[in-house]
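Subgroup meeting minutes
Present: P.N., E.W., G.H.
Scribe: E.W.

1. P.N. recapped why we're keeping a running log of single-chain structure predictions: easier to compare across weeks, and new members can see raw inputs and outputs side by side.
2. G.H. added today's entry (100 aa).
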Amino acid sequence: MPQQLKKRLEGLSDEFIEQLAFGSTELSTQLMFAATLINSTMLADFMRNIFIDAKRMFRENIDSTDWQSFWDERSRLFPEFAQMTTSSTYKVSQVAFKSI
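Output recorded in log:
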């Protein structure tokens, strides 16, 4: 876990780190989520393409079918994704949903 946090925070400005350390709990949570998006282009794409579209359509929830649709689209763009095992794909989806 500490290495994961260190990786998320590498390259971020001193001001960002200061706000993270001394800001309110709500601000710190939002900044950690932003740091996660900065370091995970896949999660950022998911948020941009699926999550935002669901919000536009006034859907209250997203689910595994949304992730599967996103994953299928990405697998067409990046064929190496299609080579991943089902359990690895599931683990990636769990990380995405826990982050959200």
